[in-house]
Amino acid sequence: MQTQTLETLIERQRAEIQNWRSDADEIGEQIADDVWDALERELEDLTSDGLLWDLSETLQFSLTTALALNFDEACERSITRRLEAHSAALQAAAPDWNYDVGRTSLDHLRKSLRIRQHFTPRFERLFEQAKPGVLSQLGRALVSDEDYVLKHMERDSQRDAARLRSVFYAARREIAREIAQLGSDLLRRACQSYLEALATQALRPSNPSLTCGA
Q1: Which whole number is the average pLDDT over 158-180?
Q2: Where in the chain are the domains?
Q3: Of 208, 196, 195, which is closest to residue 2 (Cα–Cα)?
Q4: Closest C-alpha among 111, 114, 116, 109 to residue 63
Q5: pLDDT at residue 86, as a whole number
Q6: Which tens digit of pLDDT belongs to each residue from 89-122?
Q7: Which of 96, 133, 152, 191 is deepest in the core (most CB within 10 A)?
Q8: Per the confidence metrics, is the pTM higher than 0.85?
Q9: What are the DSSP calls for 73-135, one per residue?
Q10: Is residue 59 within 8 Å of 51, Cβ to Cβ?
Q11: Contacts of 55 by beta carbon, 8 Å cutoff, 6+ apart
């Protein structure tokens, strides 16, 4: 009776994971939307008081770091937690169940760190795109320091911040498409790993009558 219950649980989880894997593209898009929404909020917060180009490298670093962390958190919500629930249910039914959910979390983290490296050049180009033109920079340089600080610096800082936000908003579709692909790839890999663990469990001596295949 216990074996039959375990077999039923394994079969049910196999079907659920396979169905989940078939939705990988849609889930990847949701991950990308969550990641980019959080990044835009971070950008808006960091530039709410304006933008000083002398500090642009620090801002770039903050944004690429935020992108990586957002990706890791989104994968945790959309992938890891669901696998944890499945694994806990199987562990309760089969004490010899052996699946390392932590390995999946580490996989997400490693991917998020690579995302930071991958998108750093892209963010650098976005910042370059947002910089004022040569004539505008020349005009600012010709204004005396005191007069510029008193009359123009705050205005230019807010304009530059608004232009940078606009450039990032425009880049959303292209970058989110790449993030979605990374998220869906991670989900497929996690599903495959879990299905292989199910197949191994099904072949254990406690489950002699179950025929399996990932």
Answers
A1: 95
A2: 2-202
A3: 208
A4: 116
A5: 94
A6: 999 988 889 888 887 777 877 787 789 999 999 9
A7: 191
A8: no
A9: HHHIIIIIHHHHHHHHHHHHH-TT----HHHHHHHHHHHHHHHHHHHHHHHHHHHHHHSPPHH
A10: yes
A11: none
Angle at 6 between CA 207 and CA 101, to 5 degrees: 100
Count Cβ neighbours within 10 Å for each residue of 198-212 and write b for 16 or more, e otherwise.
beebbeeeebeebeb
Residue given tokens 């199987």 in the structure block: 90
pLDDT tens figures, 69-78: 999 999 999 9
Q: For residue 9, which of 104, 102, 88, 100 has the smallest C-alpha distance? A: 88
Task: Give, in order, the Cα–Cα distances in Å from 122 to each of 31, 125, 139, 153, 189.
Answer: 20, 5, 28, 28, 26
Cβ atoms 198, 13 nearer than 8 A: yes
